[in-house]
Amino acid sequence: MRISTTMQYTNSLSYIKNSNSKVDEKATKYNSGLKFQSAGEDPSGMASKVKYEGAIAAYKQYIEAGGIANNSLSEEETALSSMWDTLSSVHSRLQQCVNGSNDSSSLKALSAEIAQLRDHLFDLMNTQNTEGEYIFTGAQSDIETYTLTSTGKYVCQADGSTRGVVVAPSVKTQVSDSGLDIFENCKTAYSMTVDTSNSISEFVRSEITSYGTFNSLFEKYYSSATGANNTLTINLDGSGNFTLYAPDGTTVIDSGEVDSSTSINKIAVRGMEFTISDATATGDIKFSLDKPETENMLNILTDIVAVIDDESVSNVDKVAAITKCQVDVEIALAHYDSYRGQIGARQNAITNVLNANESLSAIKVESKANVSEVDAFEAASELIRAQNQLTVSRQIYSMLNKQSLFDFI
């Protein structure tokens, strides 16, 4: 084999080029921290990297969505909490209204305060988030939840829909509640109506004095079936005794004597009180259990303010109306509080999901690093090794540059 000077130079230059390429390659890996830059370098590695990057991006989106959901639920919970406080204040004012020591001016002052609390409740029901959306309206978030009509009635404009956010691959969380469900579909106190056309002429008036006892009677005997008989009967025997019959007309619910100890003759039975003009009257008092109703608190409070301010309404009727309104407020408080509980449960669920998402995202990040990223210390060592090889190759070339084959002849 013949060796020429040119061949020596060519081999040395080739060695320098290869060493220089290795230095560039190792420097790129060290500086970028990546094992490869293209799919051609490592097809399977690049496929795994893309897969992990997609999963990491998805979990990032889930975490952001969860944060938005938590903020929305916090706004709703805060608004409902303020409403609960406002209604609690209303309940206290109503309790003061039935105080027998109040004169007309005191009652008007209390009714004015109740009206102000109603207006505050109206504002809270129309709560907006930072984007200016009404949080209780549903899908049509640009429309006020409640509006006051020219007739003085408050009308709900919520559409009944809710919004949800996906916070995990298979988890969608509700982040809003419709005012139609919270405020408009809130039940009111049970009631009953005396049928004056089919009752004795001695009947004067009726009143529910104990809603707790009356509610038990109502829930046992009221039927929502179409055409159901919800009429109960009180029979008076003419001797001052009465008997309360169930809708079937034969089942005895209760019995007793007419209270005639005062100038007013009263029949007190199952949380109800019926006033008659003659304790020895004979015949029946028929009354129906009214269909349960729903109404928003804004209209309920407007009506009770009007009753309190109306001097033509007797004190007895005012007390009866205020007592019923107190029960309505208590029902609303419990109803609103149930939604607060639901919101709290959703927030806890979101927190747990977000914690899991962060853990899973961290695992994906680590897996991606194992596939596509180099070890910093290893990359530095390989770069130094490549630089040393380049230095040696340059030194050899320098030595060869000073020699020729004639030196060996």
TrEMBL record:
Alphabetical list of Pfam families matching this protein: Flagellin_N (PF00669)
UniProtKB keywords: Bacterial flagellum, Cell projection, Cilium, Flagellum, Secreted
Coiled-coil stretches noted in the UniProt entry, renumbered to this chain: none
Subcellular location: Bacterial flagellum; Secreted
Domain of life: Bacteria
Example GO BP: bacterial-type flagellum-dependent cell motility
Main location: other
Any GO CC annotation of this UniProt entry: extracellular region
Flagellin N-terminal domain location: 3-140
GO molecular function: structural molecule activity
Family statement: Belongs to the bacterial flagellin family.
PANTHER family: FLAGELLAR HOOK-ASSOCIATED PROTEIN 3, FLAGELLIN
NCBIfam families in alphabetical order: flagell_flgL
Protein's UniProt name: Flagellar hook-associated protein 3 FlgL
